[in-house]
Design a protein that fits this description.
- The chain is α/β, with parallel strands linked by helices and 272 residues long.
- The protein has one domain (3-264): Rossmann fold (3-Layer(aba) Sandwich).
- The protein contains ten helices and seven strands.
- It has helices at 11-20, 33-45, 60-73, 92-110, 136-144, 164-188, 204-210, 215-224, 233-244, 262-267, and strands spanning 3-7, 25-30, 49-54, 76-81, 114-123, 192-198, 255-258.
- A seven-stranded parallel β-sheet has the order 3-2-1-4-5-6-7, with helices on both faces.
- The protein is globular, with a radius of gyration of 17 Å.
Length: 272
């Protein structure tokens, strides 16, 4: 039986798990053990075969252990990495450790166990689309530096970022660059990997951001967008289903913006 790995048991992770986990061995992981237990129990109650594993994505040993646990359950065909922290939740160092290093570790370790024909998605963010372009040199460093050395790069020094939001945008753009590079290594195993950049999604994290310092601007983006609403976790799960499924076998190393048209509204001057 194929194994589906979902890292992050929040709203988006649970939505992806429900969509991808039918008829599979579903491995769900999260740092918050209470949230993990609740999500696993709910999924089991709905008929899913669930293994729950705690993980700290900022720890190489923890991510390695999770990848080994997944491979021990069967062929790992699907990996969805949704874990992360946002500017209202965490400090600059924590954002860099979880959102930057954590994603790199997941890509490296699961790139060694993903089965032929498998696919992965990493949740980035629309914030990455507002990050100023990296120089060619910096982009190469962020793409190819071994994960354990990423936080030692001068461009990833916490002192560079005067606010958590700046570190968050940097990390999320770096995720997109890292996924593009990882698609080559995953391709050597006959697998694919892509990223998804959600806009404002109605999860606890999304609602906290709307209530935070940048909430007014985020609401303006929603109001000016094509969709005129915040996204639902199911919107992200639908995008993930496409990127993980047979209709997208010619897509790897790409980023799919799932924001209801919010970035387009900014880019075209709709917000004035």
């Amino acid at each position: 039986m194929d194994v589906v790995v979902v890292i992050g048991a929040g709203g988006m992770g649970q939505a992806i798990a429900r969509r991808q986990g039918i008829g599979t061995r579903l491995l769900v992981a999260d740092f918050d053990k209470d949230q993990l237990a609740v999500a696993a129990d709910e999924l089991r109650g709905e008929g899913y075969e669930v293994t729950a594993e705690p993980v700290d994505v900022s720890s190489h040993a923890s991510v390695t252990s999770l990848a080994e646990r997944a491979a021990g359950l069967g062929p790992v065909r699907t990996v969805a990495h949704t874990a992360g922290v946002s500017p209202v939740q965490a400090s600059v160092p924590a954002i860099l450790a979880v959102d930057l290093l954590g994603t790199a570790l997941v890509l490296e370790e699961f790139g060694q166990v993903i089965a032929a024909g498998g696919a992965g998605v990493v949740i980035s963010s629309m914030a990455g689309h507002f990050q100023p372009p990296f120089s060619d040199e910096d982009a190469k460093l962020l793409a190819l530096t071994p994960a354990d050395e990423l936080l030692a790069l001068p461009i990833a020094d916490p002192a560079v970022f005067p606010a958590p939001g700046l570190a968050y945008a940097f990390a999320k753009r770096a995720n997109q660059v890292r996924v593009q590079a990882a698609s080559v290594a995953w391709g050597d195993r006959g697998a694919r990997v892509n990223s998804i950049s959600p806009g404002v999604i109605a999860t606890p994290m999304g609602r906290a951001e709307l209530a935070g310092d940048s909430g007014a601007m985020m609401q303006m983006m929603i109001d000016a967008s094509n969709a005129k609403r915040a996204g639902a976790p199911a919107d992200v799960a639908a995008a993930a289903a496409f990127l993980l499924g047979p209709e997208s076998t010619f897509i790897s190393g790409a980023d799919l913006l799932v924001d209801g048209g919010g970035v387009a509204a900014v880019r075209t001057g709709r917000l004035g």
